[in-house]
């Protein structure tokens, strides 16, 4: 191949090499006299024009020119080379010298183009390259096109490319996730149900929504789960309207929050089929995929039918509720008799019996609290929890709970910081159980700590209650799961502490139903501070 000998006037040379930021400056300052191309004032009109196009483009481009395929590239292509890799040495290098690791792959494509063949097109092709001090597996979508001189003779190859590694890896992860879910479900089911469950797992509903336009695309299985026919057009609002009103706003807010934050979306909710009116429970999982130069931002995911699982949970909750209710009645009677006996024995001098009765009373009260916890869980998860909302003084409730707790203390001292009158609109009994639970936990998990501080402040339209102890503290990884149902921190220090891991879960759910929140700050060996907030009464 012979280089074209045409040249451009010196006065126009700089205008062709303008453009770009980093790469424009590097090309202008590079000593090209040591290459086969010679100094820029000797370059052909075709080369100058093509370099000008490359530098001004915001799409990744690379140019190989002449018999030695001397290399140029623009700012958009620069990130593909990574850090501490081929850049900036790649500028002005021969293509074969720059790309030895992939030369056997790209050399036939270059020859095809330069021999007068058609332009090439490769999509999501794995081409490992050296960058960031190592060989990386990188996927590309790219095209090779010839560049002719003014006589029509091929003198260069223009490469237009886009790295698609993230897209390929994301699709692989989604496929892996679905596969793992199918495998997991197969393992836990009996042999006679394996075929049925694998078919259900394969029938996953999928959906895709354009974030800007809210155009919604649903798969056939997705439409089926919401009671629509396969050939019907289904919008985002159509799907939301199949969700009962008491769950609809929660789902809508969860979607908007996931889009705004970029965090994963995961929620369970009931639906009522549009045509068949069939009630179902589904679990939806989704993720925001930010916009790129090729695609607008979209929110996509899948939906699973969990109706049978929910029915099992409801039957379990009904059973727990029934048993808890039946146990509560005799305990209430026993509690009453113990109080009567304690009152009478205090008039006698038999301190042993009096002390024993008081200890029995404390244990009965603990049992009642535990049973009430299971009963509340049953109501929460079956959607039957009832809130008796009223306006009351939160500071007064805190003082009452402290007075109720004091008789059970042996080694601790409760300290209430000055708390101004604070009115909230909430269920007084249930908020009282939240405070009582936090105090009980502080006592149990700070065996060597003496002081437990309670405080209450107001800010930004909410009341915030804080309970601080001098206990053993909680590890960061445990804090993430602390408010999950039946979760307990398992350490050698907590082995002899009773509990089922339902107290903090109940606190979290009660506050969630009130529009409040709960969180904790903790340091190992120093102690923990639990916070919860409630909207102020208006």
UniProtKB/TrEMBL annotation:
EC number: 2.7.13.3
Entry GO MF terms: histidine phosphotransfer kinase activity; phosphorelay sensor kinase activity
Signal peptide range: none
UniProt keyword terms in alphabetical order: Kinase, Membrane, Phosphoprotein, Transferase, Two-component regulatory system
Gene Ontology cellular-component annotations: plasma membrane
Catalyzed reaction equations: ATP + protein L-histidine = ADP + protein N-phospho-L-histidine
Residue ranges annotated for the Histidine kinase domain, each copy included: 322-538
Family annotation (InterPro entries): HATPase_C_sf (IPR036890), HATPase_dom (IPR003594), His_kinase_dom (IPR005467), HisK_dim/P_dom (IPR003661), HisK_dim/P_sf (IPR036097), PAS (IPR000014), PAS-like_dom_sf (IPR035965), PAS_4 (IPR013656)
Domain of life: Bacteria
Gene3D superfamilies: 1.10.287.130, Histidine kinase-like ATPase, C-terminal domain, PAS domain
Entry-linked SUPFAM superfamilies: ATPase domain of HSP90 chaperone/DNA topoisomerase II/histidine kinase, Homodimeric domain of signal transducing histidine kinase, PYP-like sensor domain (PAS domain)
Domain spans labelled PAS: 191-262
A Pfam family the protein falls into: HATPase_c
EC primary class: transferase
PANTHER family: OSMOSENSING HISTIDINE PROTEIN KINASE SLN1, TWO-COMPONENT HISTIDINE PROTEIN KINASE
Name of the protein described by the UniProt record: histidine kinase
Organism: Pedobacter steynii
Taxonomic classification: Bacteria, Pseudomonadati, Bacteroidota, Sphingobacteriia, Sphingobacteriales
